[in-house]
Specification:
The complex is a heterodimer. By secondary structure, chain A is an alpha/beta fold. Chain A is 55% helix and 7% strand. In chain A, helix 17 runs parallel beside helix 23. The radius of gyration of chain A is 25 Å and the shape is globular. Chain B is mainly α. Chain B has a domain of 46 residues. The radius of gyration of chain B is 27 Å and the shape is elongated. The relative contact order of chain B is 0.05. The chains are: A alpha/beta, B mainly alpha.
């Protein structure tokens, strides 16, 4: 019986192949597809993956112009510039590569994830064409360059890589929590170098290659620390448990990163680092006028700490210079939001928007951000002037709210390719929305305090219900008809307001898709499960057909 | 002279073509996924590390309060 069945199947398959071969190839269509790339519905991007690895049988053919742009101006350009950045920031053409190899062999967070960076580009830019491919790729380029700057400066002054030697550079570095904004240090910017401690060893790795961070989460729990706090905090102190933190600075400035779990991170860092440490907690309920002065005194306390430890003075003119430079970045961000909110011509996709904004606004003013903004401005002016619709298959304009899954920040690229969901803006992009006045010291300090109170997670997520519920006004402002509601399963703050959102979504008749995740830890809710939740909603509630059916169900558990 | 120039152009074109093949067939990704990353994981798994939990935890001088 089985042999008969098998014979039948083989005959059917042979028949189908015969039919296919007997069909006359449509040469004109083939030529058109080669030159312009296939239409969206015929791309079958899911067929390009090899098993669950996330690797491609071959990279996507986007038509001649876009494929050659991707090859020359993204793939080749970035590989070449990674080499030049290593030399530029690592101490020259000899010491740069030497320090890179030392770091590569010493730190797991360096040796495992960062060389796979071009796949990070690939995942975020899948299916993109024309100006949105270019604009988004420039954002990725900016983040890559700034990441290289940070880890090369760490390696160049790292005691662990340099035989325990306290170099001059080591003596002039300040380490700080990744959620202590770079703007705090503008008054010392030309004489000291501030480098966030966890940004590169933890945060960026999760986006580039999500395997590495699991080691740090497990390490934290291996010494008996609880497993239920935010896994971000766990990963941050896991770095210390595994002795995988670079020793590049004599002091540390920490923050409460907007939750109690992070206060514990500071305590543990104080233990493991065993050096002068200034804790600069920022208020959670920052609207309370009584906390403003306290917050300002905390910032001044950090400045005093730096002056005492390094023997340098806070320079008001220097502060003004860099704060004004930063204001230019903020002004351009507002221009971008305006185009994103009111036109279909925005040349940045959801993942590039989210990551670039959180990166530069946290990191503070650096030349690379201005360089990138100049490129993007040119592209955006062109799309607006020529009315180029950048994501033409948009069916829904979505806003993503709450904190995103770091291991699947490119879900929005998938959601557009598969379902036409265009994630126009996200919550973390809207934080840090504050100009820094420089007319008087008092105004400067006031705005700086506000700026830091509007930091990631704090600005909306735990800053009080009136802030997290500002979703409705942002939905209106950005002309969105759908919410992708992140559900960080280990964030106690956001879990507390889950029910209120459920009620409000029903009351306001808003299409909202809850996306559960555990920030950096892909083991709790996999990427495939996230896709299934979105696809189920699109099929059963929205009753829509996928634009690319090969993307509805595929494996990628082992991918970066 | 023309011959040398043509030779240089030929080599450049060959390298460019080779790089395009690496790009198009995702050979960089395959190398990193199947060869480089497993080797690095093995290296880091076998690395001797200091036990940071032996660090004494003590009160430090309060350095920044007025």
């Amino acid at each position: 019986m089985k042999i008969k069945e098998m014979g039948g199947k083989l005959r059917a398959r042979a028949g189908a192949m015969r039919d296919k071969l007997s069909e006359k190839p449509d040469v004109r269509k083939m030529a058109r597809d080669f030159w312009y790339g296939k239409p969206h519905e015929e791309r079958r991007l899911g067929d390009l993956y090899i098993g669950d690895t996330g690797l491609y049988k071959h990279r996507e053919w986007r038509g001649v112009v876009d494929t050659m742009y991707y090859f020359n101006m993204i793939w080749l350009y970035n590989y070449i510039h990674m080499v030049t950045d290593v030399m530029k920031y690592g101490g020259g053409p000899v010491m740069g590569p030497v320090n890179l190899v030392k770091g590569l062999m010493r730190y797991r967070w360096m040796g495992q994830p960062y060389l796979t960076v071009m796949h990070w580009f690939d995942r975020g830019l899948e299916g993109m064409r024309g100006p949105i491919l270019r604009g988004s790729a420039w954002h990725y380029r900016g983040m890559t360059s700034e990441t290289i700057r940070q880890f090369m400066e760490m390696f160049a002054s790292d005691k662990k890589l340099n035989g325990g030697k306290e170099s001059e550079q080591w003596k002039h570095n300040i380490a700080h929590n990744e959620t202590v904004s770079g703007s705090i240090f503008y008054g010392f910017h030309d004489v000291l170098e501030d480098i966030p401690l966890e940004m590169i060893p933890y945060f960026v790795t999760c986006h580039v290659n999500n395997h590495t961070v699991l080691n740090y989460i497990d390490a934290a729990q291996s010494i008996g620390l609880p497993s239920d706090p935010c896994p971000m905090c766990q990963a941050e102190y896991g770095l210390f448990v595994l002795d995988d933190y670079p020793d590049y600075a004599p002091t540390m400035i920490t923050s409460n990163e907007a939750c109690d779990g992070s206060v514990a991170t500071s305590v543990l860092q104080d233990w493991f680092l065993n050096r002068p440490l200034y804790a600069m907690p920022q208020p959670m309920r920052y609207d309370d006028p009584l906390v403003q002065e306290h917050c300002q005194r905390e910032i001044e306390g950090a400045w005093k700490f730096i002056e005492e430890q390094y023997g340098v003075k806070f320079d008001w003119d220097m502060y003004c210079k860099y704060a004004e430079e930063q204001n230019k970045l903020t002004a351009f961000e507002h221009e971008k939001w305006d185009v994103a909110a009111n036109t279909p011509y925005y040349p940045i996709n959801g993942v590039a928007q989210a990551l670039y904004r959180i990166y530069y606004s946290q990191d503070g003013n650096r030349p690379i951000w201005h360089e990138i903004d100049a490129h993007v401005r040119k592209i955006m002016n062109n799309t607006v002037k020529n009315k180029i619709v950048t994501l033409p298959k948009t069916r829904h304009r979505a806003i993503a709210w709450s904190c995103a899954p770091l291991y699947y920040s490119n879900w929005c690229t998938w959601a557009y390719n598969c379902w036409g969901i265009n994630c126009v803006i996200n919550m973390d992009s809207l934080m840090f929305d504050q100009y820094l006045r420089t007319d008087t010291y008092e105004h400067a300090l006031e705005d700086l305090a506000w700026y830091n109170e509007k930091a990631p997670m704090r600005a909306m997520a735990v800053g009080g219900h009136e802030h997290i519920l500002s979703l409705w006004s942002y939905m209106e402002r950005f002309n969105c008809d759908m919410v992708i509601m992140y559900d960080q399963l280990q964030c106690k703050g956001m879990q507390g307001i889950h029910g209120v959102f459920e009620d409000e979504f029903r009351k306001r008749d808003i299409h909202a898709i809850w996306v559960p995740h555990a920030l950096p830890d892909k083991r709790t809710v996999s990427r495939k499960e996230i896709r299934k939740i979105i696809s189920d909603y699109m099929i059963t509630v929205m009753r829509e057909e996928p634009l690319d059916p090969t993307l509805v169900d595929f494996e990628d558990d082992s991918s970066w | 002279m023309k011959k040398i120039l043509l030779k240089i152009l030929g080599i450049a074109a060959f390298i460019y073509g080779l790089l395009f093949a690496v790009f198009y067939f995702d050979l960089d990704g395959k190398f990193l996924y199947y060869i480089f990353e497993p080797a690095m994981i093995k290296h880091f798994d076998n690395m001797k590390r200091e036990d940071n939990t032996t660090m004494p935890y003590e009160m430090k001088e309060n350095v920044s309060r007025e």
